[in-house]
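Exercise 7. Given the encoded structure of a 220-residue chain, write a plausible sequence.
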């Protein structure tokens, strides 16, 4: 458990590269949520940072980190391919989970995953490879369908949050939900679109995420 609050930038080694992240640990935190950002985004995503701040007020630690290096991001901006390389992104989430376990400031914290867009698929795949470490998963406007055959193997309770007006993604999430074999829930935020930009929509996402993590990480 963290005695004093921590807010600093960290470096996460993955094979021959290093990924940058922002680690925040409120005083008294017992759990930590790793954020896997979505297509074309980064750890600076304002939506993820808003959710992270909300979690922090409920004494949940957070790690927002870049899934791609700056050079990889430059390639992805031109091609759009890496953001859909779920295997690569999942490996990065696994590396962050292992870093949490090996870091003295976080080794005692229970771990949850929060994924957005393609990051949700990466989180779900990573959770099957770190089954003992991951206690809960939340997807925001995610593409869990891209996790494919990993879905029935997920062991952590999973919440899928989708905007009520994000019709194609609702269908994708319903299909993914049917394949999950764990405790699961699909929460639809009324009148919200894919980025939850409508007044009050992101607040609902943050509240739903807080409730899910508090419920499941407290007993993991």
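Solution.
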């Amino acid at each position: 458990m963290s005695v004093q609050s921590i807010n600093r930038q960290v470096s996460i080694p993955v094979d021959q590269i290093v990924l940058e992240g922002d680690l925040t640990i409120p005083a008294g935190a017992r759990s930590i949520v790793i954020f896997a950002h979505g297509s074309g985004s980064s750890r600076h995503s304002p939506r993820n940072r808003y959710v992270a701040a909300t979690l922090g007020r409920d004494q949940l630690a957070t790690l927002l980190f870049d899934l791609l290096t700056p050079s990889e991001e430059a390639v992805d901006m031109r091609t759009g391919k890496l953001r859909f390389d779920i295997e690569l992104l999942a490996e990065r989430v696994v590396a962050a989970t292992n870093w949490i376990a090996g870091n003295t400031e976080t080794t005692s914290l229970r771990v949850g995953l929060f994924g957005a867009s393609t990051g949700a698929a990466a989180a779900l795949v990573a959770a099957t490879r770190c089954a003992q470490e991951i206690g809960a998963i939340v997807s925001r406007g995610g593409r869990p369908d891209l996790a494919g055959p990993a879905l029935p193997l997920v062991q952590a309770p999973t919440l899928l949050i989708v905007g009520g007006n994000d019709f194609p993604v609702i269908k994708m999430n319903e299909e993914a939900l049917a394949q999950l074999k764990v405790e699961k829930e699909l929460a639809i935020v009324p009148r919200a679109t894919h980025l939850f930009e409508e007044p009050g929509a992101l607040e609902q996402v943050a509240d739903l995420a807080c409730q899910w993590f508090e419920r499941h990480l407290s007993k993991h």
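Remark. The chain has a mean pLDDT of 93. Students should compare their own answers with the one above.
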